[in-house]
Amino acid sequence: MTATAASGTRLSAPEGGLGRKRIRWADLLFSLVLRACVITAVLFLVVLIGYVLIEGWSRLDLRLLTEFASIRRPEQAGAQAALWGTIWLIGLVALFCLPTGVLAAVYLEEYANPNTWYNRLLELNISNLAAVPSIVYGILGLGILARGLGLGFTLVTGALTLSLLVLPVVIIASREAIRAVPSSLREASYGLGATRWQTVWRTVLPAAVPGIATGSILALSRAAGEAAPLLLLGGLTFVSFNPDGLLSQYTALPIQIYGWIAQSRPEFHALASAGIVLMLVVILTMNSAAIFIRNRYQRHR
Length: 301
Known about the structure:
Blueprint: H1 2-56, H2 63-66, H3 80-111, H4 117-129, H5 134-148, H6 155-179, H7 183-191, H8 196-225, H9 228-232, H10 253-261, H11 266-300
Helix pairs in contact: 1-11, 3-6, 3-8, 3-10, 5-6, 6-8, 7-8, 8-11, 10-11
């Protein structure tokens, strides 16, 4: 019986070693596949950025920021109106969307009863709206805001439509950030005699600011790069003035780039590449602000 056990041990040892080798090879293969995917994505990004930099290098000067669009003289044209239109849009979207999204997330996480049919339906709709194509929001804004409410093809119509577009993203990101706050912090606040609102305002929200800021900036970055809804809402490709109010006509960098690409002259294509670089700078600046806010609040925690 001992010999049999010893024989069984001798036979199982190679099998166990072979199994461990297979696991190591599988881990190595999976690691190589992941690295190949990352390298491929980074390579495509580097190629695209390098292409637009080389293509638009001749137009990366102050004229891009100080001059308005021109159909006849592309060598003198700029994106001043599109840049200020994008800044107006992002500012209004932040004003309309961020307070609404964060407060909705606070209600759903801290106050709402998840067992009621109303709140379950609300959560389901929020998740579904996050996956709706942007052109559908453009049609909604055209039918309800521009024509139904009589706002017309103005800056406020585009800002409200983009706010509806990114609102589900802000709510979902804010909920995840609030949910990640340890429950021990809430219990400690309640133990000191704080009310629910005081706990949310002074304990939960400060701890959730890094996640909320990151999700909000990503949502605003998406709004800054959207072109499909604005094409339906009066985002003109040729505007020779800066917006001066909520009811002003406007254009934005994605719309302006689309207009330049549609032209046949190669000068406009170089101008479009320079506009793409400008839009990347705006979005990277916003993302850098989110990283700064997140790191600052993480140091203070």
